[in-house]
């Protein structure tokens, strides 16, 4: 039987537009400056939580999708919480990027989204092969509906977005539900689901830098009663190719079924296929004096035969049941099967005075399987005259990766010019390394983890939520070197605590604080050949959150400090071939973010991030150098306005700025800060036909959004370009 929604916060009546905007300005000011008593005293609206206690379920369990709601505002998320919760009730930094925000900005992959999202830093490579960071750490997993699988740039497993309704992003560790993950946090992609009524659209796009795209999306009931519903999405994209020969094609097919098994139980099934075919661009070398090559944006420092091919399949099954009395149960599983083959040449040195360089190469075959299973039960209950809630559950994950790789620092005997590098005769780098044994590696890795978790949200008073949780994990990590024919493994048990609190200052603002942990098994070995203990990380975070217009607009100011210990380090003794756990980092900073809909026509995403990193005990220069690539300051803004009524009815305009301060690499390659301006104009001809033009880098700024070694990974940002999209909704 279905459950009646429970309102955890009162919904405010809709006010006239001018009043709403002045309330927003006051709310943001209060958030920024700490909610002084005078400001509180002058507030004309100070409603409190509802006095009526209704313990019949969590209203967010059946929250509508972002494509149904429209706009940029969404009041709840599941990332890092398991049971859906209001953003104000999650005592960590969480952002949600809705379907409309994705489409307005013309985003097709998660790394493209990361470049526009406050608090995230993307080390750009080919689209779908970039590295995504938050607070100095890389996201090494991505979840689909709360079920994780590995994500890495080299394997091309950064997801595309055609199959997803929204993207939920948590910054900082959340070991309660993802204990063996990285410090950066969790990214959860929420699938598009079948709909109760028929809906469909087709769209096509074309751009000035050889961009091309087509998409078909069809959803609706499959039987007369509507108890069986389906959805199919097919998408093909050719990404911008402003660098010579750097073609990048991706294709996605997504299919889903939702089947009602009675009034209170639903079975959901999903399948997602992704393929990529890329002529790899590994970036530019530096010049003979160590300078970046600003005048050579389109030059391709690789061979025309460079190639990357990947294929991935994800199968998802989910069984949900609403119990009488408000309980909610979920059993879900995801199986991922991926393979990637690549073979490419790139610069092996800096350019000399004759504009020649050495040539390096890499070839690899990667096979990866991942299984994630999760079972949870949550229930609200009444205590102390208020509604509290608990979540209990168990999960299991298993990651297996085979990586056969060949590397060469000298594909040619002599230095070559750029033209000679482009026309280089084909070399099978992996086959050559396999035959000679030089630069050849073949590893098999396995990570298996089983966990039991519980979380309690207790409200001893209406304005205060105390959150406590714990997780007991058993993990087993194994690393096998197939070339040396040896294997190391480590298994252990770990307890991961979690604590937080949320205090409501009034109906719109809450103070929050939290403590979270995470650990990360390592593949490095000590002097005895044993795997090192896992890296251990913890985070302290505090801040204030605001929620306005019934949750359509959310604001946050936060401060955080992270510690990361046991990072593998190479000892100072000459010739050492083992590692020791010496690395220790301290990362701290602050964030400000406002996201959502100010009115029915006006949407906004804006944020500022400050990051300060300190290496208290260095590991290898290569590992610690990643923090140099994190700019101290980032500003990201995007807004759009849609006109309703009058002569401009149907017109939509938008624009944004992405800016960051200077950064450098461990090879002493330095890049100045930059600011890039983007714009959008769209027009809805009628209820069915619409057009949109995205103008990227409209000032044609030449900049580097990533730097690396003297030979490679110095990646130029895209020049000015435009993409036009035409869409028809049935």
UniProtKB/TrEMBL annotation:
Q: Which GO terms describe its molecular function?
A: siderophore uptake transmembrane transporter activity; signaling receptor activity
Instruction: Choose one Gene Ontology CC annotation of this protein and give it.
Output: cell outer membrane
The keyword Transmembrane is assigned to this record:
yes
Entry-linked CDD domains: ligand_gated_channel (cd01347)
| Keyword Membrane set for record | yes
Q: Which domain of life is it from?
A: Bacteria
What is the designated name of this protein? TonB-dependent siderophore receptor
Q: What is the lineage of its organism?
A: Bacteria, Pseudomonadati, Pseudomonadota, Gammaproteobacteria, Pseudomonadales
């Amino acid at each position: 039987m279905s459950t009646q929604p429970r309102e955890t916060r009162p919904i405010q009546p809709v006010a006239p537009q001018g009043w709403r905007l002045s309330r927003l300005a006051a709310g943001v000011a209060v958030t920024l400056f700490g909610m002084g008593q005078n400001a509180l005293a002058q507030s004309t609206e100070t409603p409190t939580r509802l006095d009526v206690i209704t313990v019949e379920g969590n209203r967010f369990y059946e929250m509508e999708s972002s494509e149904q709601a429209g706009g940029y505002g969404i009041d709840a998320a599941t990332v890092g919480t398991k049971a859906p919760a209001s953003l104000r009730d999650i005592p960590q930094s969480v952002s949600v990027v809705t379907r409309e925000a994705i489409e307005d900005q013309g985003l097709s992959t998660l790394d493209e989204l990361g470049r526009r999202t406050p608090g995230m830093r993307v080390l750009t490579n080919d689209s779908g092969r970039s590295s995504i960071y938050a607070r100095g750490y890389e996201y090494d997993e991505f979840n689909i509906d709360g079920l994780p699988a590995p994500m890495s740039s080299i394997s091309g497993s950064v997801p595309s977005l055609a199959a997803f309704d929204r993207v939920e992003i948590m910054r900082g560790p959340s070991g309660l539900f993802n204990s063996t993950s990285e410090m950066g946090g969790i990214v959860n992609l929420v699938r598009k689901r079948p709909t109760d009524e028929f809906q469909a659209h087709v769209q096509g796009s074309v751009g000035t830098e050889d961009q091309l795209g087509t998409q078909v999306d069809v959803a609706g009931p499959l039987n007369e009663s509507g108890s069986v519903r389906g959805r199919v999405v097919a998408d093909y994209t050719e990404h911008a190719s402003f660098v010579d020969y750097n073609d990048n094609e991706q294709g996605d097919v997504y299919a889903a079924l939702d089947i009602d098994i009675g009034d209170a139980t639903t079975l959901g099934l999903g399948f997602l296929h992704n393929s990529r075919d890329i002529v790899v661009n590994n970036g530019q070398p530096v010049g003979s004096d160590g300078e970046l090559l600003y005048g050579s944006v389109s030059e391709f420092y690789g061979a025309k035969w460079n190639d990357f091919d990947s294929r991935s399949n994800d199968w998802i099954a989910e069984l949900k049941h609403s119990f009488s009395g408000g309980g909610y149960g979920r059993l879900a599983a995801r199986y991922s099967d991926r393979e990637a083959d690549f073979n490419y040449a790139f610069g092996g040195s800096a350019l000399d005075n004759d504009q020649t360089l050495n040539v390096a190469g890499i070839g690899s075959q990667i096979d990866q399987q991942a299984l994630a299973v999760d079972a949870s039960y949550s229930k609200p209950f009444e205590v102390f005259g208020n509604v509290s809630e608990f979540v209990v559950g168990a999960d299991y994950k298993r990651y297996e990766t085979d990586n056969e790789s060949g590397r060469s620092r000298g594909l040619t005997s002599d230095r070559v010019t750029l033209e000679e590098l482009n026309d280089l005769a084909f070399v099978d780098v992996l086959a050559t390394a396999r035959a000679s044994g030089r630069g050849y590696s073949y590893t098999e890795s396995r990570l298996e983890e089983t966990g039991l978790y519980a979380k309690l949200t207790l409200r001893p008073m209406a304005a205060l939520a105390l959150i406590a949780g714990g997780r007991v994990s058993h993990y087993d990590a194994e690393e096998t070197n197939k070339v040396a024919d040896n294997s190391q493994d480590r298994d252990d048990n770990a307890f991961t605590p979690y604590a937080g609190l949320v205090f409501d200052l009034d109906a719109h603002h809450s103070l929050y604080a939290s403590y979270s942990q995470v650990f990360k098994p390592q593949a490095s070995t000590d002097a005895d050949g044993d795997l090192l203990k896992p890296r251990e990380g913890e985070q302290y975070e505090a801040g204030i959150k605001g929620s306005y217009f019934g949750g359509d607009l959310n604001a946050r100011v936060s401060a955080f400090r992270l510690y990361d210990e046991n990072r593998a380090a190479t000892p100072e003794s000459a010739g050492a071939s083992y590692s020791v756990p010496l690395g220790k980092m301290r990362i701290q900073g602050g964030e400000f973010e406002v996201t959502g809909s100010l009115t029915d026509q006006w949407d906004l995403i804006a944020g500022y991030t400050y990051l300060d990193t300190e290496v208290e005990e260095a590991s290898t220069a290569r590992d610690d150098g990643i923090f140099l690539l994190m700019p101290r300051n980032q500003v990201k803004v995007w807004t759009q306005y849609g006109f309703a009524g009058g002569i401009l009815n149907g017109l939509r305009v938008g624009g944004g700025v992405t800016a960051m301060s200077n950064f450098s690499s461990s090879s002493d390659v330095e890049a100045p800060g930059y600011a890039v301006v983007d714009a959008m104009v769209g027009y809805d001809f009628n209820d069915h036909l619409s057009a949109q033009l995205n103008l990227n880098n409209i000032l044609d700024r030449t900049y580097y959004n990533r730097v690396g070694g003297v030979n490679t990974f110095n990646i130029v940002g895209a020049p000015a370009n435009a993409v036009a999209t035409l869409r028809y909704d049935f």
